[in-house]
Amino acid sequence: xxxxxxxxSRRRFLVAAxxxxxxxxxxxxxxxxxxxxxxxxxxxxxxxxxxDGPQTAVWTYDGTIPGPTLRLRQGDPxxxxxxxxLDEETTVxxxxxxxxxxxxxxxxxxxxxxxxxxNFVYEFTPPDAGTFWYHxxxxxxxxxxxxLAGALxxxxxxxxxxxRDLMWLLQDWRLAADxxxxxxxxxxxxxxxxxxxxxxxxxxxxxxADVSVKAGERIRLRLANAxxxxxxxxxxxxxxxxxxxxxxxxxxxxxxxxGRLVLAPAMRIDxxxxxxxxxxxxxxxxxxxxxxxxxxLTTLAYDNAPPLRTHPLDAPVGLPRNPLPEPDLxxxxxxxxxxxxxMMGGGKLAGVGGMMGMATPGMNGTAAWxxxxxxxxxxxxxxxxxxxxxxxxxxxxxTMRNETAWWHPMHVHGxxxxxxxxxGSPVLHRQWQDTVLLAPKDTIECAFVADNPGDWMLHCHVAxxxxxxxxxxxxxx
Length: 477
Ligand code: C2O
Ligand code: CU
Ligand code: CU
What we know:
Layout: E1 11-14, E2 33-46, E3 56-61, E4 67-73, E5 78-84, E6 93-95, E7 119-124, E8 130-135, H1 140-145, E9 150-155, E10 164-173, H2 188-192, E11 200-203, E12 210-213, E13 218-225, E14 232-236, E15 242-246, E16 249-254, E17 261-263, E18 268-274, E19 282-287, E20 295-302, E21 333-341, E22 369-371, E23 388-390, E24 395-402, E25 408-412, E26 417-422, E27 425-426, E28 432-433, E29 435-438, E30 443-449, E31 454-460, H3 463-467, E32 471-476
Parallel strand pairs: 2-5, 4-9, 10-13, 12-20, 21-24, 23-32
Antiparallel strand pairs: 1-2, 2-3, 5-7, 6-8, 8-9, 10-11, 13-18, 14-17, 14-19, 15-16, 15-18, 19-20, 21-22, 24-30, 25-29, 25-31, 26-27, 26-28, 26-30, 31-32
């Protein structure tokens, strides 16, 4: 991995002194401190497979795969200056952050794309602490598939009682035998089926055989799936992870069903792991989402030191809740979205009617999917008419019905949704998500308060599905 470019400026400019001339007019006058960062988007190289395999030509944030982990503080204004060193337009989307629409990074819809050689200044104050991530929203399939992704951690105002806080950003790559990223982005087969699932999964940019841990320590492990299309289901052999947050939002602490953490593209899960293994012992972390294709992601390797403590910490594992507005289910506005299309048994494409015909050359082919009979393709662009409009402050009760034979992690920009039910059964643990995974034929009900005005995207986060029509826009005014 190329680390000499890994210089992420983390400067806290204190401009409290009265009368200080402020160089940019975008800085709010009342600001007392702006947490400023710079990120450059540029081609680079990475050693993805551990060992001495060939380097892979990739696209990077600040020269590294994944991009630098941005750490912001809950409630503190942040400024992130993004410089585009690619030969094509890009934007950055701050996935899961509830921010002003103009900072959401959707080209055409919320901002003009950042042209090669140009900058864009993102400014927002993260209201929620938790695990988020950032990625491009232009030429998404290619830009994400070439490696553009990074973790964004918003720190709690009071630190959480753990011994270590680890971030695992997982990325899936389709590599050819020579170590290059395989060509063929946007193939019709991938688009109409499971998406571009690859053949190498990296953890923070490489394939580490071991992750070293200490007996007795308590780890907060933040998992993020930054893959184009690969679903994951992680198991921690010999351990009992407790889920404390989903998509950045704290939930009631619970052990996952069957000990399996299902992590679809764009989802994040924070777990608390009490390391109760013996000094010197080794425990595999496996992903068995796809039948018959289980593999070992890495191995937890205990060092030989005696346990840090004899009993697990007795501090509670629950995280403080974020200030999310509570949906008013009685007066809610009901909306339903039906997911349609994709390949069915027998290799035929399910009927996708009423195309909006927004595909333009270079925008990744034709529609294979639709929402309520409409196919919006691509990444977001000017002129996307909203599918529905919500009054500001109203609760939206949203039902999503998956009529297809495929899995879809459905993602909403700008909001976190309280997940109410799956196939008629209540979803427990008071979980709020920005990305909800629908299995084939699933129906999900969720709710959120439409407190943030603007035109917002809602799409499947399997990049090929989004590009091929599984996307819509709604408006809050
Ligand atoms: Cu994480 Cu519209 O995306
Ligand atoms: Cu998003
Ligand atoms: Cu999908």
